[in-house]
Design a protein that fits this description.
With 402 residues, the protein is an all-alpha fold. The chain folds into 2 domains: 5-118; 140-326 and 343-387, no CATH class. Helix content is 64%, strand content 1%. It has 14 helices and 2 strands; from the N terminus they run βααβαααααααααααα. A two-stranded parallel ribbon has the order 1-2. α2 packs antiparallel against α3 (58-81). It is globular.
Length: 402
């Protein structure tokens, strides 16, 4: 295991500044050598941060490692793959012709770069996904109040999920896997892990939304819900494409197209090309999330990588079964332009059960890494036993005071 140094936050900030600078100043006239030099500089910083530094907290390390490699993937998209000044534009404008970015002032380009960097889902931009939740119509004060309330609720849910995880003997280092102590502790551990992840992402999003809208940086319509409806998740494909956050959709799609068309040279229109694209998306996503795993463990565990590779397999099987049974009419080779009709209720119920069972089975690949790193357990915080003792002690003190 390489020697780990204290995490240099200034170097991490420098990598982000270099990315924003690249988005600001690079144009269609920028040479490929300049682009590669900047990308390799950011890549070098990112690799050093993930492989040779630590914050001293395994939970923070896991989140930071993933975020750093996500930033590297965004850098590959915006610096190497995409002509950022020409191919990305506000969705109410037409695409620019090559060289038109010369007419834009440096300050406008800087504001544009900041907007792109802080809007990973592309809200208001040409690559905004059509499957995002509808924008809020609430006035500013009502929107800020609702997001503050959601953030507080998210904190309570995170606390409850943490207590569940820390109280679970299957996740406290007694075993190597959440599966090893029976279905009950397996189910409770997976549920708490997923609940904590959703609550954490949603809480951070609500805090940022309340702040930015409250101080006037942006409007309520720019802060769509970070997650879609759980009722859309009657297939694994719909879970990842509609219910789960779409924060990585743009760089994943861009990098996948580049790999499939420029590196693998897969012809368009062939049945296997869509299959390769689908699995490449999850392959890249797995590689990105390996950063958090490595920074947390100090070595490769590959549990997260296996988890994401399995998602591509599940979606592929779903598509084959769907085509055979003609439930949705979708096709890997030539998907419909119009969305398929909503399946019947019994089909969706079967789908919900399938999705729940699928994640019940495959999520331990991610959960088990936390067991190895000591992320869970009584040493990490409150458990139900400690909470009950605190409650009883508080009750007795109150009774004595009365």
């Amino acid at each position: 295991m390489p020697e780990r140094h204290p995490f240099p936050w200034g170097l991490h900030a420098l990598a982000q500044c270099l990315l924003v600078l690249s988005i600001t100043v690079f144009s269609s006239k920028t040479s490929i050598w300049t682009r590669w030099s900047m990308f390799l500089l950011i890549a070098g910083i990112s690799c050093y941060l993930v492989c040779y530094t630590t914050t001293g907290d395994v939970t923070v390390d896991q989140g930071l490692g993933t975020a750093i490699l996500i930033q590297l993937m965004v850098a590959a998209d915006y610096i190497l793959i995409t002509d950022i000044q020409r191919d990305i534009y506000p969705k109410d404008q037409s695409q620019r012709v090559k060289g038109a970015e010369a007419d834009i002032s440096l300050m406008k380009r800087f504001r544009r770069a900041l907007s792109l960097y802080t809007t990973p889902r592309g809200i208001g931009w040409s690559f905004e996904p059509r499957t995002l939740p509808k924008p809020s119509t609430k006035p500013r004060f009502a929107f800020v109040s609702s997001r503050i309330a959601r953030a507080l609720a998210g904190m309570l849910i995170r606390t409850f999920a943490s207590v569940m995880v820390n109280s679970n003997p299957a996740m406290s280092g007694n075993t190597l896997s959440a599966r090893d102590m029976g279905w009950f502790y397996h189910t409770a551990g997976v549920f708490a892990f997923a609940l904590n992840a959703v609550a954490q992402i949603n809480t951070v999003h609500c805090v940022l939304a309340a702040f930015c809208v409250g101080v006037g940086i942006s409007g309520p319509q720019e802060w769509l819900n970070v997650f879609g409806s759980p009722f859309d998740a009657y297939t694994v494909q719909r879970f990842w494409g509609r219910t789960w956050h779409q924060l990585l959709r743009r760089p994943l799609k861009s990098c996948t197209i580049f790999v499939v068309t420029k590196i693998l040279h897969c012809p368009t229109g062939n049945p296997y090309t869509a299959f390769v694209s689908l699995n490449t998306v999850f392959l890249i996503s797995g590689l990105v999330h390996v950063g958090g795993e490595y920074m947390m463990l100090g070595r490769l565990g590959l549990g997260t990588f296996r988890f994401f590779l399995l998602q591509g397999l599940a979606v592929s099987v779903e598509t084959i079964v769907s085509n055979v049974l003609t439930l949705s009419g979708s096709s890997l080779a030539s998907p419909r332009k119009a969305p398929p009709p909503t399946p019947k209720l019994w089909v969706r119920i079967v789908g919900y059960v399938w999705v729940l069972l699928w994640f019940w089975w495959c999520l331990p690949f991610m959960v088990d890494l936390g067991i190895l790193a000591g992320t869970y357990g009584p040493h990490r915080g409150l458990t139900f036993e400690r909470l009950s003792k605190l409650t009883v002690n508080a009750y007795h003190r109150l009774a004595m005071d009365v």
